[in-house]
Amino acid sequence: MGTPFKNLDDLVLLRIFSFLPSKHLHHSMRVCKKWNHLANEVMRNRQSYPQTFVYQLKDNRDKMKNFDEKIHSDLEKIWCKPALSVFFLNSPAFFESLSESSNGNNQNGDYPKSKRLKTEHKKDTMSKLIKNKLALNLPKLFITGDGIVGSDKNIGIEIESDCEQPAFSSLFIPHNGSYRFEYKPVYFKTKLPELKTEQDLDKFLGVKQNEEIKFLLLLVDGYSDSKLIPLLNNLNRIRKIKIERDVKKSFACSGGIVKKLDDCSGKRTKLVFLCLISKVESKCKVSQIVIREPTQQEFATVWNEKINLMKKSGVFSNKDKCLAFQVSCCGRGKDYHRQENFESNMFLKEFPNVSLVGFFGYGEVGVDYVPDYGSDANKNLIDDVKNKEYLFENIQATGFTSIFTLISFQN
Fold this sequence. Notes:
By secondary structure, this protein is of the alpha+beta class. The protein has helices spanning about 10-15, 20-30, 35-45, 60-65, 65-75, 100, 125-130, 200-205, 225-245, 300-310, 335, 340-350, 375-385, and strands at about 50-55, 80-90, 95, 125, 140-145, 145-150, 155-160, 165-175, 180-185, 210-220, 250-260, 260, 270-280, 285-290, 320-330, 355-360, 365, 395-400, 400-410. Helix 9 (about 225-245) links the parallel strand 10 (about 210-220) and strand 11 (about 250-260).
């Protein structure tokens, strides 16, 4: 005779509940007080951390039959209550024949007609279809680059734009009392803020008195170097001032040039600041490395030295929830390494169970960074790097690089 559910140990129930989608977990809360308490504990843990998933269409049959069902199923698995959703799209982000199945020509009814979709167009963009699946009041940011980066069950996924089918890698960022992600768009025909001082930057990004900037992701829509370089110079001056005053106040910065930015405002976006802001007392930590080797033969040397730097920074721990961003040049994919998903899998091998998202771009922005940069302990980490020519001690606009940012939401 089996053990009644009511007699199961709390740890066993917590383990079972951890596999349930949020929708079913809410149903479980109604069974009894004990289940309500345990299910709430699982929900609180889920809702504290960002969540990711990646999706690629395989063929036209998949496009017609399974897209709606698959997206609906994946969105049900989003356990956090997102305050912001970010989607990285690859370049062929359209459906050539979706309108054929939704305008009455589809006799088999493989794809039911949706009243919310405008089906008179021959091409429906991936972003349009995703928007129709998300809550209208949820802030959404779509970034179309030359490819996407994601992970699934500790396996790296890199889908470049020579892939004929649309794909996306997504990030859902929850409300959290200890940290938050803020995004600030700058539209075309809008002047870029000066941001000459620390106060200018804090005011622009909405940093409050008891908060600090941990990480800044710059997303650029073909922005000219003549305007980008002065911005980076100002950010470097601000970082230097922060380090001189308090070594814990500096921040990491990554980013890249993409094909298109869309924040669903109806305006053309030329630059987006996606910023991680945390409470001063928060244990949220960030480490970042820039991989740029002089020749392909030197990749292993540069990689090993930079990965060791990130490991010694103390950011990664199997006990903590971690998120990672990868920004890579469009030339560093399978043709360069002669192997698919090469760099993303190399990274996940060193930092297992980390949620990885990112994109391939047409120019990168980055800096090598360890937490408490400039402190005696971590300054020694930088000093111990043998090949100083590989170090990026200031934020630079560069090319043919891969930038990895590791964020730990420590318990």
